[in-house]
Sequence to fold (221 residues):
Amino acid sequence: MSLVEIQNRILTATKKAGRQAGSVNLIAVSKVQPNERVAGVLQQGHRLFGENRVQEAAGKWPDFQQKYPDTQVHLIGPLQTNKVNQALELFDAIHTVDREKLVKKLADAVQKHGRCPELFIQVNTGEEPQKAGISPADVDGFVKTCRETYGLTIAGLMVIPPVDEEASLHFALLGKMAKRNGLDGLSMGMSSDFEVAIALGATHVRVGSAIFGERVPSVNT
Ligand SMILES: *Cc1c(COP(=O)(O)O)cnc(C)c1O
Fold:
Protein backbone atom coordinates (compact mmCIF):
# COMPACT_ATOMS: atom_id res chain seq x y z
CA MET A 1 0.00 0.00 0.00
CA SER A 2 1.04 3.61 -0.26
CA LEU A 3 0.42 6.98 1.32
CA VAL A 4 -1.90 8.07 -1.50
CA GLU A 5 -3.94 4.91 -1.25
CA ILE A 6 -4.41 5.34 2.49
CA GLN A 7 -5.32 9.01 2.01
CA ASN A 8 -7.95 7.98 -0.55
CA ARG A 9 -9.37 5.30 1.72
CA ILE A 10 -9.59 7.84 4.56
CA LEU A 11 -11.42 10.32 2.33
CA THR A 12 -13.87 7.65 1.15
CA ALA A 13 -14.56 6.50 4.72
CA THR A 14 -14.96 10.10 5.89
CA LYS A 15 -17.54 10.90 3.22
CA LYS A 16 -19.35 7.60 3.73
CA ALA A 17 -19.74 8.51 7.41
CA GLY A 18 -21.32 11.80 6.38
CA ARG A 19 -18.38 13.70 7.78
CA GLN A 20 -16.55 16.66 6.32
CA ALA A 21 -13.53 15.95 4.11
CA GLY A 22 -10.37 16.78 6.06
CA SER A 23 -11.90 16.11 9.47
CA VAL A 24 -9.68 13.06 10.01
CA ASN A 25 -5.96 13.54 10.65
CA LEU A 26 -3.65 10.83 9.35
CA ILE A 27 -0.76 10.18 11.73
CA ALA A 28 1.85 8.24 9.77
CA VAL A 29 3.43 6.00 12.40
CA SER A 30 7.12 5.96 11.55
CA LYS A 31 8.46 4.05 14.58
CA VAL A 32 11.14 1.51 13.74
CA GLN A 33 11.01 2.36 10.04
CA PRO A 34 14.17 2.93 8.00
CA ASN A 35 14.85 6.63 7.43
CA GLU A 36 14.62 6.25 3.64
CA ARG A 37 10.97 5.23 3.96
CA VAL A 38 10.22 8.19 6.23
CA ALA A 39 12.02 10.54 3.82
CA GLY A 40 9.92 9.15 0.99
CA VAL A 41 6.68 9.99 2.78
CA LEU A 42 7.98 13.49 3.63
CA GLN A 43 8.88 13.99 -0.05
CA GLN A 44 5.28 13.19 -0.95
CA GLY A 45 4.22 16.13 1.20
CA HIS A 46 2.96 14.37 4.32
CA ARG A 47 3.70 16.31 7.51
CA LEU A 48 2.15 14.46 10.46
CA PHE A 49 3.95 11.54 12.05
CA GLY A 50 3.70 9.35 15.13
CA GLU A 51 6.46 7.83 17.26
CA ASN A 52 6.13 5.58 20.28
CA ARG A 53 9.50 6.18 21.94
CA VAL A 54 10.96 9.51 23.06
CA GLN A 55 14.54 8.38 22.47
CA GLU A 56 13.92 7.17 18.96
CA ALA A 57 12.04 10.36 18.04
CA ALA A 58 14.87 12.49 19.45
CA GLY A 59 17.35 10.72 17.21
CA LYS A 60 15.32 11.08 14.06
CA TRP A 61 13.03 14.13 13.93
CA PRO A 62 15.22 17.18 14.64
CA ASP A 63 17.15 16.47 11.41
CA PHE A 64 14.05 15.85 9.31
CA GLN A 65 12.43 18.99 10.75
CA GLN A 66 15.36 21.15 9.68
CA LYS A 67 14.49 20.21 6.13
CA TYR A 68 10.71 20.12 6.62
CA PRO A 69 10.02 22.66 9.42
CA ASP A 70 6.24 22.37 9.23
CA THR A 71 6.33 18.71 10.26
CA GLN A 72 4.40 17.69 13.37
CA VAL A 73 5.30 14.67 15.48
CA HIS A 74 2.91 13.05 17.95
CA LEU A 75 3.94 10.74 20.80
CA ILE A 76 1.72 7.64 20.71
CA GLY A 77 3.71 5.45 23.12
CA PRO A 78 4.25 5.49 26.90
CA LEU A 79 5.82 8.56 28.52
CA GLN A 80 8.04 8.26 31.60
CA THR A 81 7.92 11.22 33.97
CA ASN A 82 11.68 11.80 33.67
CA LYS A 83 11.27 12.41 29.92
CA VAL A 84 8.47 14.95 30.13
CA ASN A 85 10.66 18.00 29.46
CA GLN A 86 12.26 16.34 26.45
CA ALA A 87 8.83 15.28 25.22
CA LEU A 88 7.57 18.87 25.39
CA GLU A 89 10.39 19.97 23.12
CA LEU A 90 9.87 17.16 20.62
CA PHE A 91 6.14 16.58 20.31
CA ASP A 92 3.13 18.55 19.13
CA ALA A 93 0.77 16.11 20.81
CA ILE A 94 0.92 13.39 23.46
CA HIS A 95 -1.67 10.62 23.09
CA THR A 96 -0.73 8.62 26.16
CA VAL A 97 -1.62 10.65 29.25
CA ASP A 98 -2.51 7.83 31.63
CA ARG A 99 -1.79 8.69 35.29
CA GLU A 100 -1.92 11.60 37.69
CA LYS A 101 1.81 11.60 38.41
CA LEU A 102 2.41 12.24 34.71
CA VAL A 103 -0.27 14.93 34.58
CA LYS A 104 1.42 16.76 37.47
CA LYS A 105 4.81 16.66 35.71
CA LEU A 106 3.22 17.81 32.48
CA ALA A 107 1.49 20.72 34.18
CA ASP A 108 4.78 21.85 35.77
CA ALA A 109 6.63 21.50 32.46
CA VAL A 110 3.93 23.39 30.56
CA GLN A 111 4.34 26.32 32.99
CA LYS A 112 8.08 26.29 32.43
CA HIS A 113 8.02 25.97 28.64
CA GLY A 114 5.06 28.27 28.09
CA ARG A 115 3.58 25.92 25.54
CA CYS A 116 1.45 22.82 25.78
CA PRO A 117 1.21 20.00 23.28
CA GLU A 118 -2.26 18.65 22.51
CA LEU A 119 -3.06 16.10 25.21
CA PHE A 120 -5.03 12.88 24.76
CA ILE A 121 -5.95 10.61 27.63
CA GLN A 122 -5.33 6.94 26.92
CA VAL A 123 -8.24 4.74 27.97
CA ASN A 124 -7.86 1.02 28.68
CA THR A 125 -11.33 0.15 27.41
CA GLY A 126 -10.58 -3.57 27.52
CA GLU A 127 -9.31 -3.29 31.12
CA GLU A 128 -6.28 -5.35 30.12
CA PRO A 129 -3.83 -5.65 33.03
CA GLN A 130 -0.74 -5.39 30.80
CA LYS A 131 -1.97 -2.31 28.98
CA ALA A 132 -1.60 1.34 29.94
CA GLY A 133 -4.57 3.64 30.19
CA ILE A 134 -7.29 4.87 32.51
CA SER A 135 -10.10 2.42 33.32
CA PRO A 136 -13.41 3.41 31.73
CA ALA A 137 -14.99 3.93 35.16
CA ASP A 138 -12.28 6.45 36.11
CA VAL A 139 -12.24 8.50 32.91
CA ASP A 140 -14.71 11.23 33.90
CA GLY A 141 -12.92 11.85 37.20
CA PHE A 142 -9.52 11.85 35.53
CA VAL A 143 -10.58 14.39 32.90
CA LYS A 144 -11.91 16.59 35.70
CA THR A 145 -8.64 16.29 37.65
CA CYS A 146 -6.60 17.26 34.58
CA ARG A 147 -8.77 20.29 34.00
CA GLU A 148 -9.57 21.52 37.49
CA THR A 149 -6.60 20.47 39.60
CA TYR A 150 -3.88 20.96 36.97
CA GLY A 151 -5.43 23.52 34.63
CA LEU A 152 -4.67 21.50 31.51
CA THR A 153 -6.66 21.54 28.31
CA ILE A 154 -7.50 18.03 27.16
CA ALA A 155 -7.89 17.51 23.41
CA GLY A 156 -9.45 14.07 23.49
CA LEU A 157 -9.23 10.36 24.24
CA MET A 158 -7.10 7.59 22.75
CA VAL A 159 -7.53 3.83 22.66
CA ILE A 160 -5.70 0.70 21.56
CA PRO A 161 -8.41 -2.00 21.59
CA PRO A 162 -7.63 -5.57 22.70
CA VAL A 163 -6.31 -7.53 19.70
CA ASP A 164 -8.81 -10.36 20.03
CA GLU A 165 -11.97 -8.27 20.32
CA GLU A 166 -14.23 -6.38 17.94
CA ALA A 167 -12.54 -2.96 17.69
CA SER A 168 -15.81 -1.20 16.85
CA LEU A 169 -17.19 -1.81 20.37
CA HIS A 170 -14.15 -0.09 21.86
CA PHE A 171 -14.27 2.79 19.39
CA ALA A 172 -17.96 3.36 20.15
CA LEU A 173 -17.29 3.30 23.89
CA LEU A 174 -14.46 5.83 23.53
CA GLY A 175 -16.76 8.09 21.50
CA LYS A 176 -19.40 8.01 24.22
CA MET A 177 -16.89 8.83 26.96
CA ALA A 178 -15.48 11.72 24.92
CA LYS A 179 -18.91 13.14 24.21
CA ARG A 180 -20.09 13.19 27.80
CA ASN A 181 -16.86 14.94 28.80
CA GLY A 182 -17.10 17.55 26.08
CA LEU A 183 -14.03 16.28 24.24
CA ASP A 184 -13.74 16.53 20.44
CA GLY A 185 -10.59 14.50 19.79
CA LEU A 186 -10.72 10.74 19.21
CA SER A 187 -7.39 9.04 18.53
CA MET A 188 -8.36 5.58 17.34
CA GLY A 189 -7.84 3.23 14.41
CA MET A 190 -4.67 1.64 13.01
CA SER A 191 -3.72 -0.07 9.73
CA SER A 192 -6.26 -2.86 10.12
CA ASP A 193 -9.27 -0.88 11.32
CA PHE A 194 -8.97 2.84 10.58
CA GLU A 195 -12.07 2.87 8.37
CA VAL A 196 -14.19 1.43 11.19
CA ALA A 197 -12.73 4.07 13.51
CA ILE A 198 -13.61 6.86 11.06
CA ALA A 199 -17.20 5.60 10.85
CA LEU A 200 -17.31 5.92 14.66
CA GLY A 201 -15.90 9.43 14.79
CA ALA A 202 -12.08 9.15 14.83
CA THR A 203 -10.37 12.52 14.42
CA HIS A 204 -6.86 11.01 14.44
CA VAL A 205 -6.02 7.64 12.91
CA ARG A 206 -2.59 6.14 13.58
CA VAL A 207 -1.45 4.16 10.56
CA GLY A 208 2.00 2.59 10.34
CA SER A 209 2.59 -0.59 8.40
CA ALA A 210 -0.10 0.08 5.76
CA ILE A 211 1.86 3.18 4.68
CA PHE A 212 5.48 2.20 5.28
CA GLY A 213 5.38 -1.57 4.96
CA GLU A 214 6.22 -4.04 7.68
CA ARG A 215 8.38 -2.61 10.44
CA VAL A 216 12.08 -3.52 10.40
CA PRO A 217 12.86 -3.72 14.13
CA SER A 218 16.64 -3.98 13.81
CA VAL A 219 17.09 -0.70 11.96
CA ASN A 220 16.51 2.10 14.45
CA THR A 221 16.46 0.41 17.83
C1 LIG B 1 2.57 1.02 16.15
C2 LIG B 1 1.35 1.72 16.55
C3 LIG B 1 0.36 2.05 15.60
C4 LIG B 1 0.46 1.70 14.13
O1 LIG B 1 0.24 0.34 13.94
P1 LIG B 1 0.01 -0.27 12.48
O2 LIG B 1 -0.72 -1.53 12.73
O3 LIG B 1 1.35 -0.47 11.90
O4 LIG B 1 -0.79 0.70 11.70
C5 LIG B 1 -0.74 2.76 16.04
N1 LIG B 1 -0.89 3.11 17.34
C6 LIG B 1 0.03 2.80 18.28
C7 LIG B 1 -0.19 3.23 19.69
C8 LIG B 1 1.18 2.11 17.91
O5 LIG B 1 2.10 1.80 18.85
The CA atoms of residues 110 and 116 lie 5 Å apart.
